[in-house]
Write a structure and sequence with these properties.
Helix content is 4%, strand content 45%. By secondary structure, the protein is mainly beta. The strands form three sheets. It has a four-stranded antiparallel beta sheet with strand order 1-2-3-4, with no helix packed on it. It has a four-stranded antiparallel beta sheet with strand order 5-6-7-8, with no helix packed on it. The relative contact order is 0.13.
Length: 140
Amino acid sequence: MLVFCCILTRTSLLLISPTSCTAEGRLQCKDMGLEEGSLLQNFTIHTGPVTRLFLPPTQATGKLRGSVVSVCQDNSIAITTHSQFTPLFVGSCHHTSVLEIRWRLAEDILLVHCLDDTVYVWGLSTGHLDRIETGAVALS
């Protein structure tokens, strides 16, 4: 099984693979703890297929620690907790494909870099789009 994302918790190892992302935007997490790969959770966040998954940096704390960032085919993103499988954040105004996600934890922001070199700056605590940067400012 090719693994997209792997999260280690106190009680289990959660695996999310390309085959666990369905056309309806569902993600299935497999619990690879002491039991033999039982289905832990099945949840829907996006309206279409999930194309990419990202993990926050290892120095993330609080609810972000161990969460998963999913990117949908419609370019929306969601940050989902591993403990409750509920979205902490959903951002859906990206006009082109999401290339990468960068975290600025000290500033409490999430940077979403898109194919057209636009960077969307999201406030993590508020969940609101703070600003959109283009050109030389976006690249720095």
